[in-house]
Amino acid sequence: MDYKSLIVNGRSVRHFKETAVDAAKISELQAFIADCKKLVPSIAIEAKFFAGDDTYKRLYGIAGYQGVMIEAPNYLVLLSEDKPQHLENAGYVGERAILKARDLGLDSCWISYSDRDMVKTVLNLDTDMEVVALIALGYASSTKKVEGIAKTGDNYSQAEMSVKKMGSNSERISLEEMVYIDKWGNSATSEILEERALLDAFSYARMAPSALNKQPWRFIVDGGRVILAIDNENYSGSYLNKIDAGIIMLYFGVILDITMFDSKWGFDNLDNDYGIPSNYKVVGYCNI
């Protein structure tokens, strides 16, 4: 897949045609999820697909955007073992599935939910695994508005933008705000990142979707290591921020995978605090 193009041309859709997704595409997507690179390969994860109308009715009032369920012809539910980093892994795998769906010509949207056990109950999922992601799939309706990342909130909408549009007028934070060198507050420049062969990875990572477009991530480049910190004092209890963390790890890592080497994220405790403020939490690092 051309990940750079898929990232640049991303969008989130709330309004879908009634046309069901072809069974062949569902099968291809399911096989892709089973075999794709995971953030934490040791965590078992399973994909379940559901047809639209009945599923929409079952989930109404349980899931949706601001309490309103999104009607789509098909839905993807990700199930996972409950282990350390399983929600970050869900964000990583779920967003990778969305990129694959986009490659297959499908539109999609993350759907939030408040009670994962209720989702299992109404969908008759007899499993010890936990529901970790709910994603709408289908084809965008041309008669409805397709909204960009700044307006669609916690459906993880992705703005239609390119690397060339990353200027001061962009809805996105700048590279200087997002990436530091050696310690917090020592802003990176495009020239420094270019010298370290990291400009592409950070430029595309900058386009990652996030809940309410908060873009909660910051990076510190410390020699051969890139540290990821997320803005949330309550990170340990936040589903959305853990999904965000997994998504940004994917966007940064997948560009490393195609431009430099196979990326791998670690989660051990780091001795150096790098001057990171108390409302940010280090959630992982990538050796480069």
UniProtKB/TrEMBL annotation:
Organism domain of life: Bacteria
Domain Putative nitroreductase TM1586: 7-252
Pfam families noted in UniProt: TM1586_NiRdase
Keywords assigned by UniProt, alphabetized: Oxidoreductase
GO molecular function: oxidoreductase activity
Annotated family: Belongs to the nitroreductase family.
Protein name: Nitroreductase
Lineage, highest ranks first: Bacteria, Bacillati, Bacillota, Clostridia, Peptostreptococcales
